[in-house]
């Protein structure tokens, strides 16, 4: 038993209680995709985070039993479709088992990876490293391509989808004001 495992076991935290508290943390919602042998694979995740700018790295985690995890490790590449507010139907579709998740989803290949139409953000990644973490495996992705649309993000907390409450209210200065401020 490792020191980390021993500490967790000794803590005596009820897994359901831990799940409840972790579920109260707002998390971005995305659909991670990959291709292998000409087939497309994808699943909803809420475990995405930026890690590093130099080099550009992101993290995403999967349960060790995840079918998609095996496909990503084999392919060595994956895409992250960051969903926007109002795309909770896509998040639900890609979270279901036993269905063709791409059948009724508008998507195309971008850098050889499935990219969902209308997503707020897109990252193509090479698998950079993996780190074991309990019952999950944390993937580090080296970002090789990005695209972004100025849409409110889809987030998940307290077992429901939403968005940042003030996204639409934020002030955006006119570009002329930004240029004038920089010319001082």
In short:
With 184 residues, this protein is of the alpha+beta class. It is built from 5 helices and 12 strands.
The tally of structural domains comes to 1
Q: In the CATH hierarchy, what is the architecture at level 2?
A: Roll
Number of helices: 5
CATH hierarchy, class: Mainly Beta
What amount of the residues lies in strands? 35-45%
Q: What would the CATH topology be?
A: Pnp Oxidase, Chain A
- The H/E string reads HHEEEEEHEHEEEEEEH
Structural class: alpha+beta
Strands of the widest sheet, in order across it, are 3-2-6-9-10-5-4
Distance between the termini: 61 Å
Largest sheet: 7 strands, antiparallel
Keywords:
single chain; alpha+beta; Pnp Oxidase, Chain A; 7-stranded antiparallel sheet; 12 strands; 40% strand; globular; FMN binding; NADH-dep_flavin_reductase; Split_barrel_FMN-bd; Flavin reductase family protein; oxidoreductase
Commentary on this structure:
By secondary structure, the chain is α+β, with helices and mostly antiparallel strands. It has a single domain (27-182), classed as Electron Transport, Fmn-binding Protein, Chain A (Pnp Oxidase, Chain A), CATH 2.30.110.10. 23% of the residues lie in helices and 40% in strands. It contains five helices and twelve strands. The strands form three sheets. Strands 3-2-6-9-10-5-4 form a seven-stranded antiparallel β-sheet. A three-stranded antiparallel β-sheet has the order 1-11-12, with no helix packed on it. The mean pLDDT is 85. InterPro entries: Flavin_Rdtase-like_dom, NADH-dep_flavin_reductase, Split_barrel_FMN-bd. Keywords: Oxidoreductase. It comes from Gordonia asplenii.
